[in-house]
Specification:
By secondary structure, the chain is mainly alpha-helical. It is 79% helix and 0% strand. The longest helix has 31 residues.
C-alpha cells in the first residue's frame, strides 16, 4: 500500500511531464549549453597558445575515455548506496567549473586536466540522471520522458555554439572589453587567446544554472524504481561480473592502459594526416 502511494506521488496522478522530467530537461539544456559553448572555441584556443592538432586529439580522447570508464563505476555504485542526487550534483558541478578553468590555461596540460575533470563529472552524472529519470515516471511513459530530456540536451548543444559565435562577433568589435579582462594578470599573461578566455569564463553562467536546476527542481526517490522493477538496467550484468572476478584496482589500471594506448594512436593518426595534408 505504501509503495503504491509513493508511486502515485512520483507520477503525479499519471502526468508524465512532471517536475522531475522538466527539471532534467532544463538541467541538461543548461549543462550542454555550458560545455558545447566551450568546446566550440577550444580548437582555436589550443592553436592560439601554440599547441598542435595532435594535442587536441589527445585531450579529447583522454576526456572521452575518462567519462566512459567512470560510468561503469557510477551506475554500479549508485545502485549499492541507493542515493543518486548528491553524486549527480557533484558531476554537474565538476563539468561547470572545469570549463571555466580552461580560461586560466597557459599550456595544454592544464586544458587536459580541466577536460578530464569535466568529463569525469559527465561520467558520474550520466547513469545516475538516467536512473532518476526512469524512477520519475510510469514504465509506459519512459519513452516520452527520455525524449523530452534528449530534446533539452540537443537544444543546449545547438544554443551553446551559437552563443559562442554571437559573443565572439560582439567582442571582435569591442576589443576594449577583452583587453580590460585579459590585462588584469601581471605581464599580460592572458593576451594569448584572450578573446577565447572570455568565452570560457562566461560558460560559468549556464554551468552554475544547471547545478541550481538539479538541486532545486529534482527529487531523488531513492531505490523505489528498483523495487518496481523499472531501473534494473542501471547496474550492468557485465560490470557486476567483472567486478566480482577481478580486483577493482587492476581492472581500473587495465582500463587506463587500454584507453591511453588508444588515445595516443588516435592522436598520432591525426598528426600524420595533418602532416600529409
Amino acid at each position: 500500500m505504501e509503495m503504491n502511494q509513493q508511486t502515485q506521488q512520483i507520477t503525479e496522478n499519471g502526468k508524465w511531464l512532471n517536475r522531475n522530467v522538466i527539471g532534467f530537461g532544463l538541467t541538461s539544456l543548461l549543462s550542454d549549453f555550458c560545455h558545447e559553448m566551450a568546446i566550440a572555441v577550444l580548437p582555436q584556443f589550443i592553436q592560439a597558445i601554440g599547441s598542435s592538432a595532435a594535442v587536441l586529439g589527445f585531450i579529447e580522447g583522454t576526456a572521452d575515455a575518462t567519462s566512459s570508464f567512470i560510468k561503469l563505476w557510477a551506475g554500479y555504485h549508485s545502485d549499492k548506496i541507493g542515493h543518486r542526487k548528491e553524486w549527480a550534483v557533484i558531476g554537474y558541478t565538476l563539468t561547470a567549473v572545469s570549463m571555466a578553468v580552461i580560461a586560466f590555461a597557459f599550456t595544454w596540460p592544464i586544458i587536459l586536466l580541466a577536460r578530464a575533470i569535466g568529463w569525469l563529472g559527465r561520467g558520474i552524472r550520466g547513469p545516475l540522471r538516467d536512473a532518476m529519470l526512469a524512477d520519475s515516471v510510469e514504465p509506459k511513459d519512459r519513452g516520452k520522458a527520455f525524449g523530452f530530456h534528449r530534446a533539452g540536451d540537443t537544444a543546449g548543444a545547438v544554443i551553446g555554439p551559437l552563443a559562442a559565435f554571437g559573443i565572439l562577433t560582439y567582442l571582435s568589435s569591442h576589443i576594449e572589453i577583452v583587453q580590460l579582462i585579459t590585462s588584469y594578470p601581471p605581464d599580460n599573461a592572458f593576451e594569448l587567446g584572450g578573446i577565447f578566455r572570455v568565452i570560457f569564463i562566461l560558460t560559468l553562467i549556464p554551468g552554475i544554472l544547471s547545478v541550481l536546476s538539479m538541486v532545486f527542481l529534482i527529487t531523488d526517490y531513492g531505490m523505489l524504481g528498483v523495487a518496481n522493477g523499472i531501473s534494473d538496467f542501471a547496474s550492468s550484468l557485465i560490470v557486476e561480473t567483472l567486478w566480482s572476478r577481478i580486483s577493482p584496482f587492476w581492472g581500473f589500471i587495465y582500463a587506463i592502459i587500454v584507453g591511453t594506448a588508444g588515445t595516443v594512436m588516435m592522436a598520432s593518426l591525426k598528426s600524420n594526416n595533418k602532416t600529409i595534408s
